[in-house]
Amino acid sequence: MLRLYHDHNAVCCQKVEIVLAEKSIEFLSEIVSLFRSEQYSPEYLKINPFGIVPTLVHDQHKIMESTVICEYVDETFPGPNLMPSSSIERAQVRIWTKRVDEQIHEACSVLSFCAMFRDRMLKMPEEEREKRYRNVGDPTRDEMYRSSVENGVTSAGAYRAIAAYELLVRDLESQLAVEGDWITGNAYTLAEVALTPYFARIEYLGLKSLWLAERERVNSWWQRIKTRKSFNMVFMQNILKEDLKEMRASGEKIFDLVAMRRAEFLSNLAKQYEV
Q1: H/E stretch holding 47
Q2: Which of 46, 136, 186, 195 has the greatest count of CB atoms below 10 A from its CB?
Q3: Is the pLDDT higher at 97 or at 241?
Q4: Torsion angle, CA of 13/34/144/95, rounded to 10 degrees?
Q5: Where are the alpha helices (DSSP H) in 118-227?
Q6: Is the dihedral of CA 66, 68, 70, 73 positive or negative?
Q7: Structure confidence at residue 274 as a pLDDT band (50, 70, 90)
Q8: What integer is the mean pLDDT of 8-16?
Q9: Which of 259-265's residues contact partners 24+ apart within 8 Å by CB, and which partners?
């Protein structure tokens, strides 16, 4: 039996949950609350010394990093194949999963901190807030999250996050124009799995329209994603209604400022192409 250490509200964990749902794999769920900093508990650090989720344990083997876990599960267990058969199409899938790991995960984290986590942390006593910053453990991430909480959408990190989402959705629209219904190989793959939680988060924050309003192909692709059984299992069944309400309320507070900073980025981008 597989044992998954995860948090239902963590986007990187949701990727693994989607793969397990797509392949109809049963697993033992061990919840590690990120907001209560349980990933830094002595018990969990024995399982994952990096203090990150998710961690998958299979036959006493520990597999870390969500993208690695997704590929491991797909290769190891029966069910629908989530990687294409050809090497060039597998390479295309990995281009998108790499983009998520290197750009979009941070972008989503920053926007989440600027919205709902900022509200929570600003209500904490200063001593408790500083403890949460120290628990991050990585000086780069510490600075990024501290700035997101203290400065919100006006932070440099928020501008980079908004730009990352803009370029992602732009490029996805172009990709779908060539490939059709899905990102590569005309089939649902780990590329869709990797992107799904990050689109779900901006939808739940009420920010989706900023990037998808004029992207017809991406809109259609997203609607296809949401009809899948795995989407219902991971998002509709596992995320609490009060959390959804909180996300929407906090997203509404930053919507206009995010829109303004997106317009700023588009203006700067246009100037780069001026002759």
Answers
A1: helix 42-47
A2: 195
A3: 97
A4: -10
A5: 118-122, 126-136, 139-151, 156-179, 190-204, 208-212, 216-226
A6: negative
A7: low
A8: 95
A9: 259/210, 261/153, 261/158, 261/159, 261/162, 262/162, 262/166, 262/210, 262/211, 264/159, 265/159, 265/162, 265/163, 265/166
pTM over 0.90: yes
Q: What is the pLDDT of residues 53-102, one digit of tens each?
A: 999 999 989 999 999 999 999 999 999 999 999 999 999 999 999 999 99
CA distances 120 to 12, 114, 153, 220, Å, are 21, 10, 16, 34
* Angle at CA of residue 218, ends 184 and 239, nearest 5°: 100
How is domain 87-272 classified at the architecture level of CATH? Answer: Up-down Bundle (1.20)
The DSSP symbol for 184 reads B
Beta strand 55-58 with 27-31 is unpaired
Higher-confidence residue of 275 and 265: namely 265
Determine how β-strand 27-31 pairs with β-strand 2-6: parallel
Instruction: Give me the torsion for CA of 156, 157, 158, 163, rounded to 10°.
Output: 90
pLDDT for position 36: 83
Distance (Å, whole) CA 23 – CA 90: 18
Domain ranges of the chain: 2-76, 87-272
When the pLDDT of each residue in the chain is averaged and rounded to a whole number, the result is 92
Residue-level pLDDT at 137: 67
Burial class (CB in 10 A: 0-12, 13-18, 19+), 25: middle
Query: 32 with 8: CB under 8 angstroms?
Result: no
Q: What is the CATH number of domain 2-76?
A: 3.40.30.10
The order of strands in the sheet holding 55-58 is: 27-31, 2-6, 55-58, 61-64
In the block, tokens 């510490």 appear at 142
